Amino acid sequence: MTELKTRNFVVGITGASGAVYGIRLTETLLSLGYTVHLVVSGAGWRVFKEELGYAVSDREGLLTGLFGSYPGSLLYHPVQDIGASIASGSFRTEGMIIMPCSMGTLSAVAHGSSDNLMTRAADVMLKEGRPLVLVPRETPLHAIHLENMLKLSRMGVKLIPAMPAFYYGPSTMDDLVNFMVGKVLDSFNIEHTLFRRWGE
């Protein structure tokens, strides 16, 4: 029987505001000993630079600095690498999370447009019946956004909009980020202590 800690998760980070969400998710999965297959879109790298101040000229060096100290394994796949392992349904994973998910990527997934590794990996989740979680970060929403989200929801995709709660008394930005990451982990029944639950 495969031990839980050896399982693979795919994490996508797009150019939507909130790259810190995807980074925290990756950190948390790696800290729990999981294997993470990471895909960052071109616009996602720009958000790394603009929002977080990271130097992105040496991408693999940056990722090693961010994630190299965790017990889990990180495998980085360039978004153009359509032949990567995660592009095939025969490669087994527990599911995929795109966090944050831009409306452009959400639309591509909704319409089966798999012209890069991010959207192809999401398409694989759908065709293989594996969990796919999207964390859209956009406001306000217009009708096309809502129609695409409804279409994906009807296909079994879990949508967890980046809408942190306040009932648990967050006092820092980290608290808000951890809440959203915790909600994603909840969708995979992964135990965590990232936020205080209602009634605790």
UniProtKB/TrEMBL annotation:
It comes from the Bacteria. Keywords: Flavoprotein, FMN, Prenyltransferase, Transferase. The keyword Flavoprotein applies. Pfam families: Flavoprotein (PF02441). It catalyses: dimethylallyl phosphate + FMNH2 = prenylated FMNH2 + phosphate. InterPro entries: Flavin_trans-like (IPR036551), Flavoprotein (IPR003382), UbiX-like (IPR004507). The keyword Flavoprotein applies. Gene3D superfamilies: Flavin prenyltransferase-like. Its EC number is 2.5.1.129. Residues 8-187 form the Flavoprotein domain. FMN binds at residues 15-17, 41, 102-105, 137. Dimethylallyl phosphate binds at residues 167, 183. PANTHER family: FLAVIN PRENYLTRANSFERASE (PTHR43374), FLAVIN PRENYLTRANSFERASE PAD1, MITOCHONDRIAL (PTHR43374:SF1). Flavin prenyltransferase that catalyzes the synthesis of the prenylated FMN cofactor (prenyl-FMN) for 4-hydroxy-3-polyprenylbenzoic acid decarboxylase UbiD. The prenyltransferase is metal-independent and links a dimethylallyl moiety from dimethylallyl monophosphate (DMAP) to the flavin N5 and C6 atoms of FMN. Belongs to the UbiX/PAD1 family. This is Flavin prenyltransferase UbiX. It comes from Paenibacillus tritici. The lineage of its organism: Bacteria, Bacillati, Bacillota, Bacilli, Bacillales. The gene is ubiX.
